[in-house]
Amino acid sequence: MSTAPIGVLGGTFDPVHYGHLRLAEEMGEALRLDEVRLLPSGTPPHRSAPEAPAEHRLAMARLATAGNARFRVDEREVRRAGPGYMFDTLSELRAETGAARPLALLLGADAFLEFAAWHRWHELFNLAHVVVAHRPGFPVERWAERMPQPLAREYSARRMQQPLAIHLSPARGIVVVPFTALDISATAIRDMLRAGKSVRYLLPEAVLDYIRSHRLYS
Ligand code: ATP
């Protein structure tokens, strides 16, 4: 069995777009991840309900990842009844992969700044490393100033300078990895679709075809 790290990218993916896919691709490459799992959420606890039903978000994630051998779509959050906490998801993954396999929770810097609001967030560090995908050229110090105190404490205690250090232990570290941010959000895509504007080249053609044929976000 492989012992290379598994990356976990949660989100509403409402719909999945190239911002998500570049994040998964660049983190997969930079961290030499064995696989990157996209986990579309069921009922997200931290935000308003997604617009598209879970089955459609799942189907779009499958279409978007079909051509990439490293990508997988994990259905568990959609299948679970009740709120989809990352704590439950990572606990299950940890039980499935065993104690030794590194798990890496992938987050955009925006999502990391909200991290201290997550259910049992402290305990998430026992289950996985946290990888913060960060836009280069934006000073990390300035970004660190925006962290709430409890998160800033964890950040300075757990920060590992070498991203590949996540291969050496199963969990507990925080790494910051520079990446090419694309200024794309699902919210903007939904707004453009509602306004009848083109969203071509913001997401894969197969996802766009799916949106059209199921009349989503119109
Ligand atoms: P919405 O606009 O509906 O809030 P979103 O486009 O931000 O959606 P999410 O499903 O909320 O997408 O995001 C899932 C994860 O992907 C988060 O960790 C988020 O930081 C990251 N992410 C979203 N958009 C981008 C992007 N353009 N580049 C890099 N990471 C992104």
Describe, in plain words, how this protein is organized in 3D.
This protein has one domain (6-214): 3-Layer(aba) Sandwich (Rossmann fold). Helix content is 40%, strand content 15%. It is built from 10 helices and 6 strands, in the order βαβαβααβααβααβαα. The protein has helices at residues 18-30, 54-65, 76-79, 86-97, 109-113, 121-127, 140-145, 149-158, 186-194, 205-213, and strands at 6-11, 35-40, 71-73, 103-108, 129-134, 174-178. Helix 2 (54-65) packs antiparallel against helix 10 and helix 4 (86-97) runs parallel beside helix 6. The longest helix has 13 residues, at 18-30. The structure holds adenosine-5'-triphosphate. The site of adenosine-5'-triphosphate (ATP) has 17 residues, from helix 1, strand 4, helix 5 and helix 9. Adenosine-5'-triphosphate (ATP) binds next to helix 1, strand 4, helix 5 and helix 9.
